[in-house]
Amino acid sequence: MHQVAPEQYSSLLAEKQERIEDQFAQFNIGDIDVYVSEPIHFRQRAEFRIWHEGDSCFHAMFEPGTKTDPIKIEHFPTASLEICQLMPKLIEAINAQPILKHKLFQIEYLNTLSGEMLVTLIYHKQLNDEWIAAATSVKEALGIHLIGRARKMRLLLDQEYVMETLNVDGKALQYQQIEASFTQPNARVNEKMLSWARSCATAGDADLLELYCGNGNFSLALADQYRRVFATEISKTSVNAANFAKDANGIENVTFARVSAEEFTDHMNGVTTRKRLTGLGLEDADFQTVLVDPPRAGLDQASCEMISRYPNIIYISCNPDTLELNLQQLSATHEVKRFAMFDQFPYTHHIECGAYLQAK
Description:
By secondary structure, the chain is α/β, with parallel strands linked by helices. The chain has ten helices and 17 strands. The relative contact order is 0.13.
């Protein structure tokens, strides 16, 4: 569990910057763009174990590697102000109703800059009508969306998502964020990431290919910079959210397909034909730019080889070590023109980076 010390924020950030500049000096990255976070209340998501003691329970966290020595969490300045304000009210409401407290194991919070809140209560017991009645009263009293989960069980009291509004280069974009599916946790830094990616988009009369598009985070923000955007993602939930947001924003030039990056690569290489990719006009596309935002493992060798065929690459990375390995492969054909560091996770060693590459 990391400690929040706002007075140390600048020096910790400077250490990260130095580390990144050293690690990537081999690619002649020049001056890097550094995007700072708010020093407190920067996370729109938080999850806590619930620890029971006597007649009451409380939010708890553990030191890494331990599961028996809970730290009672009463203040959590990492989380958004709205999560911080809700936590004591929610735990008080839960402690007041035995049916809500009994065998409660974990609480997950998902909040948006636009003020919506979705809370998931996770139990080591099956949930019944009595639980629904008690949970509904708490949901209405606190003005939140609430979901109950247990083994092979998921109860929605109204909806499974919140709508986030991100302001990107003066434009408001709406995104659907579904419970338990991936979204960027630091919304203000995410806005800066989207703006940076837009500033790298130079081939306006051509098309954009995107791999690992998630809920359409980059696809929708970049849509007006390209003739067409074609984006792929393996998660069905994320593709549904992306299409929902596409309609909510009235964006028409983006196509989402549910295939993995590896499947897309095989399809484009003629190894295997994917039914989900036929009839989408891929043959007529003029992909001048490819954007990738892979998971921590980075890109596999074949995907790296495939994206190296495109003149422009925008690479967003949540793991500098796999980014370094991928850039070693890509630097055979491309050179890094711009490099950015986004402090998504203050007070931790985690760093989000962006690299813009052009073919040599």
